[in-house]
Amino acid sequence: MKWNDVGGQVCSVARAVSVLGDRWTLLFLREAFSGTTRFEDFLDGVGASRATVAERLDRLTRDGIFEQHEYQTNPVRYEYRLSEKGAALLPVVLTLQSWGDRWLGDGRGRPATLVCGSCGRETDPILVCDSCGEAVGDDLRAEYREDAWVRTRQSRR
Amino acid sequence: MKWNDVGGQVCSVARAVSVLGDRWTLLFLREAFSGTTRFEDFLDGVGASRATVAERLDRLTRDGIFEQHEYQTNPVRYEYRLSEKGAALLPVVLTLQSWGDRWLGDGRGRPATLVCGSCGRETDPILVCDSCGEAVGDDLRAEYREDAWVRTRQSRR
User: Fold this and answer.
1) Does the distance separating the beta carbons of A129 and B130 come in below 8 Å?
2) How many helices (H) and strands (E) does chain B have?
3) What is the pLDDT of residues B61-93, one digit of tens each?
4) Any idea where the domains of chain B sit in the sequence?
5) pLDDT (tens digit, 9 = 90+) per residue, A131-152?
6) Which of these, A115, A127, B58, B103, is most buried using a 10 Å CB contact count?
7) Which site among A2, A11, A12 would you substitute to test the B interface, given the most B Cβ atoms closer than 10 Å to its Cβ?
């Protein structure tokens, strides 16, 4: 299988990775969630080359993660704001950050501490079942649709 | 900045992306969380080339995501099991899957449905504050350490 076929798998992880699997992409999201909207600030914040930043902002806009908004005319300049689809990636960035805090630390505490908007306390968000509120873990089970990747793969054997 | 410098940023997202930013890596994790442990099954499940699978399993083992366990002698064969550090990536894969379900669907329902181990109901896990239990959202605030990426970047201006 070629990389370009991955997005065609009947699997939401594969589909998501085909959009986000680019290694710079998550840094663009980090910047966006920190409030960055303008080209020069992405350039400074992500630290990739000018060509890479232009190409990724374009691609993420085509993929519907960012929306372009004109903020200046003559010359026209655009800023890039997260769409609803893009903003919905916050949990992905937060779980990634939490894992990095725990497993890739430098022994000097977290680089960034999160403060809950509801209770105002320092928070390390956890993933819970939306029915019962219990933390999800190893005992989670998956049921696959007939044409899901994992099933079609098994039937090839 | 070169890609290889990204992991050196004082930022847990950057550090995590430097380990996981490879576009195949998340598919290896998907397979591992589905119970795959052996080389031939990763080859079948991930769909990358034999060389890529060998290289990534090696790298993920060096990064402490997988642990090698001998399951056969003469000839010696190893399986790859998630370490504690690797298993801690479950929330990243689940939030990715959930986003893919919601935003990259094919209109025919989720490829995989998750069933909660605690209540036995279908679940779409949500991220909540570990203090007050409220869902985290836009009102989350970050406080940065003195040497954190976002602060050193600001001070360059």
Assistant:
1) no
2) 7, 6
3) 999 999 999 999 989 999 999 999 999 999 999
4) 3-88
5) 999 999 878 999 888 888 877 7
6) A127
7) A12
Q: Mind telling me how many Å the CA of B57 is from chain A's nearest CA?
A: 17
CA distance B24 to B74: 31
Q: Which of A6, A19, A129, A155 to mutate to probe the B interface, most B CBs <10 Å? A: A129
Reported as a single tens digit per residue, the pLDDT across A34-54 is: 999 999 999 998 888 999 999
Distance from the first to the final alpha carbon of chain A: 17
**In this complex, do A140 and B115 lie within 8 Å of one another by their Cβ atoms?**
yes
Q: How far is A38 from chain B (nearest CA, A)?
A: 15
Of B90, B88, B150, B136, nearest in space to A122 by CA: B136
How close does chain B come to A67, measured CA to CA in Å? 15
Q: What is the nearest CA distance from A75 to chain B, expressed in angstroms?
A: 24
- Please work out, in degrees rounded to the nearest 5, the angle formed at the alpha carbon of residue A67 by the alpha carbons of A82 and B27: 60
Answer yes or no: do A99 and B110 touch at CB < 8 A: no
Please state which CATH number belongs to domain A3-88. Answer: 1.10.10.10
Complex ipTM: 0.92
pLDDT at B17: 87
3-state secondary structure of B26: helix
Which stretches of chain B score pLDDT less than 50?
Answer: none
Coil, helix or strand for A127?
strand
Under an 8 A CB cutoff, do A34 and B142 touch?
yes
**CA separation for the pair A111, B97 (Å, rounded):** 27
Question: Which residues lie closer than 8 Å to A69 by C-beta, 6 or more apart?
Answer: A78, A79, A80, A81
